[in-house]
Structure formats: structure tokens, C-alpha cells
Design a protein that fits this description.
This protein has helices at 17-27, 30-45, 48-60, 68-78, 80-99, 103-106. The chain is mainly alpha-helical.
Length: 121
């Protein structure tokens, strides 16, 4: 429903991604740059000013929708907020799943087994 349903004032929830972006930025690497790029695009493309500018641009632009390129361009101009919200959702879900601990690796004795030795720290 994310691709077809979007209200401009709902997009303010994108600001909740800023702390996650800051955490990823502190880690560094390619993921930090992707987080910065995707979060910035999400904030800009869901904003009211950019939405109004895209509506004005889309009204004056005559694009043939006979081919796949024309159809994709039309969707990107008509629904940019929905698409960037979908991209942000997939990206942050990927980051979350990548960083989630694997239960089999967390316990050296294996899942459901009691460790045989106890060590003191």
C-alpha cells in the first residue's frame, strides 16, 4: 500500500530516520553514505515544496507513456514520495536484518544446549 497511498503530511514521519542515519554515519563505510543519500532524498522528496515543484513540472511535461521508460518517468514524477519511502523502508530493513545477531552464532554450545564449562570474567 506504500506505493499507492501517501499523504504529504504523513511524510513528516521520515524525520524518525534521522537518528538511524546518524548511527550509521558514525559507523562509517559505504553503508553510511547510502544512509545519508537515501535519508536526504527521503526528506527532500517528501517535503511540501519539492512536491509542489514536481506537480508544476509534471503538468507542463508531455511524456509518452507508450514505452517502459515513459511509464517509469511518469511514476517518478507523479509518486516520488511513495517511491523514496519504499526505498527507505527496504534499505533500513536490510540494515536491520544485516545487523541482527544470528542466534546460532551467539551461543557457542549451540541453540538449546547447556554449556559444559563456565568461565569467570
Amino acid at each position: 500500500m506504500l506505493v499507492t497511498y501517501h499523504r504529504p503530511w504523513d511524510a513528516k514521519l521520515v524525520m524518525l530516520a534521522v537518528p538511524a542515519c546518524a548511527i550509521l554515519w558514525a559507523e562509517g563505510g559505504l553503508t553510511s553514505w547510502l544512509a545519508l543519500l537515501i535519508t536526504t532524498a527521503g526528506i527532500v522528496l517528501t517535503g511540501d515544496v519539492s512536491l509542489a515543484a514536481l506537480v508544476i513540472l509534471a503538468d507542463k511535461l508531455q511524456v509518452s507513456t507508450a514505452g517502459i521508460f515513459g511509464q517509469m518517468l511518469t511514476v517518478m514524477l507523479i509518486r516520488p514520495a511513495s517511491l523514496i519511502l519504499l526505498v527507505m523502508s527496504v534499505f533500513y530493513l536490510w540494515v536491520y536484518l544485516r545487523g541482527a545477531p544470528n542466534p546460532a552464532e551467539a551461543d557457542p554450545a549451540g541453540p538449546g544446549k547447556m554449556p559444559t564449562e563456565f568461565t569467570r570474567a
